[in-house]
């Protein structure tokens, strides 16, 4: 019996180095995740965003960004390559569907993807796990969610982001009116995704979000909000709408936002990890 057992052990002893190697890699992975979360909490930033950049856009798609997407023109050459990679990955990951006989064009796909990737450009996880489908209507559409006409909506149950192309296009084309349908709806998806996740991006988001909520309880800030009336009234519908409107103001009027409400601006900047393009 001892001889048979010994023979059995010797037959499979080649596995031992691989097992040890696997355990070492697993330990290093766990250690890194712990360190990554500690680093993000202590310094309010990420260790890295992209490990490798290998996907790219076609020449036509890059031309669309250069000619029509202001944020892209603010990036450095290195940041542009990262942005292009993320857009290409986003496009590959989602299904774009036209409604009411709308023909979905490459321009629509690139610009919608660019808005989504712009909002998550400071994050490590940028593809919106709660979105599988992007439904595009020609204009405002009837929503079965509440029986009203909408310009856009995020439906987490169906994992769908729904947009009126007419209103989306106006939102991104006018870059300084703090009305941007794409940013607004993508921010809803981003916020709900953060609530349902425990990764480093979600934890950072939640910490800064709580700081914003606590700041809003300050009476001096309340008085200033009432006096200045800087944010449009719809922002105060609920916390989800406030964060969506805040993102619109942050992206489109960063200097003005920072001048009026510097602390809220700082929290929003940290929440999105926006350390580029002059923000």
UniProtKB/TrEMBL annotation:
Domain of life: Bacteria
Keywords: Membrane, Transmembrane, Transmembrane helix
GO CC, any one term: cytosol
InterPro entries hit by this protein: MetalloPept_cat_dom_sf, MtfA_fam, MtfA_N
Pfam hit, one: Peptidase_M90
GO MF annotation: an example: metallopeptidase activity
Bilayer-spanning residue ranges: 15-35
PANTHER family: MTFA PEPTIDASE, PROTEIN MTFA
Name of the protein in its database record: Zinc-dependent peptidase
Organism per entry: Dokdonia pacifica
């Amino acid at each position: 019996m001892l001889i048979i057992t010994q023979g059995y052990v010797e037959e499979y002893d080649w596995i031992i180095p691989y097992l040890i190697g696997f355990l070492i890699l697993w330990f290093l992975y766990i250690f890194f995740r712990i360190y990554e979360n500690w680093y993000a909490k202590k310094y309010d930033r990420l260790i890295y965003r992209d490990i490798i950049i290998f996907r790219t856009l076609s020449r036509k798609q890059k031309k669309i960004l250069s000619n029509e997407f202001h944020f892209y023109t603010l990036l450095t050459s290195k940041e542009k390559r990262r942005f292009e990679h993320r857009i290409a990955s986003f496009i590959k990951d989602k299904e774009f569907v036209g409604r009411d006989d709308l023909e979905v064009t490459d321009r629509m796909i690139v610009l919608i993807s660019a808005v989504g990737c712009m909002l998550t450009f400071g994050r490590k996880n940028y593809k919106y796990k709660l979105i599988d489908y992007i439904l595009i209507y020609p204009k405002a559409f009837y929503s079965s969610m509440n029986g009203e006409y909408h310009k856009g909506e995020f439906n987490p149950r169906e994992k769908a982001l729904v947009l009126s192309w007419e209103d989306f296009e106006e939102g991104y084309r006018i870059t300084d009116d703090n009305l941007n349908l794409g940013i607004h709806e993508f921010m809803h998806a981003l916020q709900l995704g953060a609530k349902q996740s425990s990764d480093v991006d979600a934890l950072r988001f939640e910490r800064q979000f709580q700081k914003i909520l606590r700041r809003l309880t300050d009476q001096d800030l309340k008085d200033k909000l009432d006096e200045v009336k800087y944010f449009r009234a719809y922002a105060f519908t609920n916390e989800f709408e406030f964060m969506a409107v805040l993102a619109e103001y942050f992206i489109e009027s960063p200097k003005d936002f920072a001048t009026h409400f510097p602390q809220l601006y700082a929290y929003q900047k940290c929440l999105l990890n926006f350390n580029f393009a002059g923000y």
